């Protein structure tokens, strides 16, 4: 039987490390890039909008319709705006989302006043108060809030990825799972 050491683990069990390594890499990228990820997604959206606008425009060659020309031009212009000012667009979208979250929470707080004195009233109020506060933070500090969220997510992804690698090694060193026909069981 071959020795179960770290070198053999990386050679034989590389497939079990794919997801944990991706988690570690994505976690590090989330911590390093933060709001840059949102900006990159907006840029990709811009490229897709331009492609959609051009495709729509090319279909106009056989059937010219003013509404379709307007839609194609709008898609292309929105795509260009997304590419040229991706941080501005993402900040605007995040502010709109923050506003909607805050307004929704405030409406729920207003409507839940009728539950005053009933079980769960305080929990509803605390939950909706925190939700309104988070919506306000997203409204006022959109990119900074996303930075903080991405750092927290990145840290959790790093922790989970590293712990999965450690656990995979421990499983490799001390035993393995086997499908014996009746289900997957642990075997030493």
Overview of the structural elements:
The protein has helices spanning 6-12, 18-33, 35-59, 66-84, 86-111, 121-140, 142-174, and strands at residues 176-179, 184-187. The protein has 188 residues and is mainly α. Strands 1-2 form a two-stranded antiparallel ribbon. A hairpin with a 4-residue loop joins strand 1 and strand 2. Helix 3 packs antiparallel against helix 4 (66-84) and helix 3 crosses helix 5 (86-111). The longest helix has 33 residues, at 142-174. It is flat, with a radius of gyration of 25 Å. The model has no long low-confidence stretch (mean pLDDT 83).
Q: What is the N-to-C succession of helices and strands?
A: HHHHHHHEE
Helix content: over 70%
Strand order of the largest sheet: 1-2
Counting helices, strands and paired strands, the structural category is mainly alpha
Form type? flat
| Stretches with pLDDT under 50, minimum 5 residues | none
Q: What profile does the largest beta sheet have? A: 2 strands, antiparallel
How far do the termini sit from each other?
A: 13 Å
Radius of gyration: 25 Å
Mean pLDDT, to the nearest integer, reads 83
What is the count of β-strands?
2
Task: Considering the chains and any ligands shown, give keywords for the structure.
single chain; 188 residues; mainly alpha; two-stranded antiparallel sheet; 7 helices; 78% helix; flat
Task: Kindly summarize this structure in a few lines.
The chain is mainly alpha-helical. The chain is built from seven helices and two strands.
Show the helix and strand layout:
Layout: H1 6-12, H2 18-33, H3 35-59, H4 66-84, H5 86-111, H6 121-140, H7 142-174, E1 176-179, E2 184-187
Antiparallel strand pairs: 1-2
């Amino acid at each position: 039987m071959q020795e179960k050491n770290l070198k053999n683990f990386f050679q034989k069990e590389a497939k079990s490390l794919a997801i944990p390594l991706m988690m570690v890499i994505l976690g590090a990228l989330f911590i390093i890039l933060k709001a840059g990820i949102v900006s990159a997604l907006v840029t990709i959206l811009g490229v897709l909008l331009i492609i959609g606008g051009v495709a729509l425009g090319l279909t106009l060659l056989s059937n010219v319709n003013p509404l379709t020309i307007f839609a194609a031009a709008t898609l292309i212009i929105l795509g260009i705006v997304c590419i040229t000012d991706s941080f501005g667009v993402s900040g605007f979208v995040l502010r709109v989302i923050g506003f909607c979250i805050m307004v929704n929470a405030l409406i729920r707080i207003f409507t839940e006043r009728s539950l005053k004195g009933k079980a769960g009233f305080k929990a509803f109020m605390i939950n909706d108060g925190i939700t309104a506060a988070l919506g306000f933070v997203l409204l006022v500090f959109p990119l900074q809030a996303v930075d903080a969220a991405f750092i927290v997510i990145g840290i959790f992804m790093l922790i989970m990825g590293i712990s999965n690698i450690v656990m995979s090694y421990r499983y490799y060193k001390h035993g393995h799972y086997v499908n014996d026909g009746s289900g997957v069981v642990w075997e030493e």
